[in-house]
Specification:
single chain, 7-stranded mixed β-sheet, about 120 residues, mainly beta, 11 strands
Length: about 120
Amino acid sequence: QVQLVESGGGLVQAGGSLRLSCAASGRTFSSYTMAWFRQAPGKERDFVISIYWIDGSTSYADSVKGRFTISRDYAKNTVYLQMTSLKPEDTAVYYCAARNGRRAFITPDDYDYWGQGTQVTVSS
């Protein structure tokens, strides 16, 4: 049974940084694409960034290019989202997601597994 557990959310001032973690368990993820989505109140869940576990190739939403990076730690089975130069519009619940396969999976329906989400609030 796949489990994804996010952590690291919190309150940060605009311009600050935050790192989110997604601890994955339940299977081997080498053939998986891992992603982060976010959902602000009253809005749809939007793709942020993804990484193909085995080779580290990444995809980014235009809104976070140059500010957010994604990485993975094989030993810890954990994916990280490093967020810098945060803006108030980055405020949302951030979700970790996973699915088998490699492609530019950018819609929520593409993903089979989800974490519970972690709140990120950026104050102006």
